[in-house]
Amino acid sequence: MLSILTNRTYRHLLAAQIVALTGTGLATVALGLLAFDLAGNSAGLVLGTALTIKMVAYVTVAPLAAAFAERLDRRKMLVVLDVVRALVALCLPFVTEIWQVYVLIFVLQSASAGFTPAFQATIPDVLTDEQDYTKALSLSRLAVDMETLLSPMLAASLLLFVSFDSLFLGTSVGFIASALLVVSATLPSPRPVEPRGIYDRTTRGIRIYLKTPRLRGLLALSWSAAALSSMVIVNTVVIVRSNLDLSESAVAIALAGFGGGSMLAAFALPRLLKRFSDRRVMFSGAVLGTGVMAIAAGLSAAMPITLGLLTVTWVLVGFGYSSTLTPSGRLLTRSAHAEDRPAVFAAQFTLSHACWLVLYPLAGWLMTRFGATTAMAGMAVAAILGLTLVLRVWPRTNTKAVVHSHPDLPPDHPHLTGPKPHAHPIIIDDLHHRVPHEP
């Protein structure tokens, strides 16, 4: 897996991702402490609102950013967005009102909504071999999971020597370091064949996405994965602190189980994806996570939940979650031409976060109103709905070349040159508006 680090451009991009994630992790801890400092016992409400603002920014800003990404130098765009994030982080220690937190969080997450899809779309342009790209996806997953595990520990260590608002300085340093690493790399920046209007550019990624059967399947899997992760992210602290009456360190142990399972999947995926299709691996991962969540709901109804049982459950759910979502970059790369990749990655970013925007509050409401057993069962049912939709919208067959015709093109059109009958893998574009023979 580490062999791809010999590629200098990718090595710098991975380093940029790691330092930016570290800065984000420090900001997460500092934001919770800032909310408590400003709102006291209402800090949970402040953080919940900030999380909602984050998701709204992701859902609304990503398509707009993608519309401009195809006309901008990609490296300059990434650097500017990193600088914006660094400046916002520097402003956070000086806020005195809760509304100021909300405004700054919206600006920060809007910049992230532009940065993340463009960054993700750059990797397959740098690593053109599919096996290398698969390894890169696993390394990115590992970086995310390591940040989840290590950033709280780093923050705790720093808080022994500095106040919590100093953590925002670390966040800013992380984003500046990310910008410098991006500057040091030479990035490809594909251009569209012809200029398009703003409406076309804003909606193009989502239109390509929703017209591609395997990407509609990916959206259904994203719904299932969001249902599982929402239960973990939103309700672990309530289960451990309230139901089990355990300490904050026990919360960290349970969440580490989820992150550890995800990391195990990241190590296993390159080999699994060599032997099995993306569809089989991703669907199996979602089935595993859903089945474990459903079994845990049944067990919790029959016997008290223990920390050990919860942690083992989260390990298996984390493995299924990572197996479901980590290969998604391969599907997105195969489903768009180079110039459309930023828009398609932005579409996945937008639509998947729309799933979390619905399921985060649902998981919290079920837990508050009915308890852990019902919340687990409800999230398992939501995940099953996604799995059912996958079977309907993502065909099991994966024909590499599809025989089709173009009655709207003249016989001498350049696209029609070559052997007859006309057959090739279908990618939605200006010449292919739908997948042939699709019902």
UniProtKB/TrEMBL annotation:
Localisation: Cell membrane
This protein's record includes keyword Transmembrane helix: yes
Superkingdom field: Bacteria
Gene3D superfamilies, sorted: MFS general substrate transporter like domains
Transmembrane region(s): 12-36, 42-65, 167-187, 217-238, 250-269, 281-299, 305-322, 343-363, 375-394
GO molecular function ontology, one term from the record: transmembrane transporter activity
Location (main, coarse): membrane
InterPro entries with a match to the protein in the record: MFS (IPR011701), MFS_dom (IPR020846), MFS_trans_sf (IPR036259)
Membrane topology, from the record: Multi-pass membrane protein
GO cellular component: plasma membrane
Residues annotated as domain Major facilitator superfamily (MFS) profile: 1-398
Alphabetical UniProt keywords: Cell membrane, Membrane, Transmembrane, Transmembrane helix
Stated name of the protein: Predicted arabinose efflux permease, MFS family
Organism annotation: Ruegeria halocynthiae
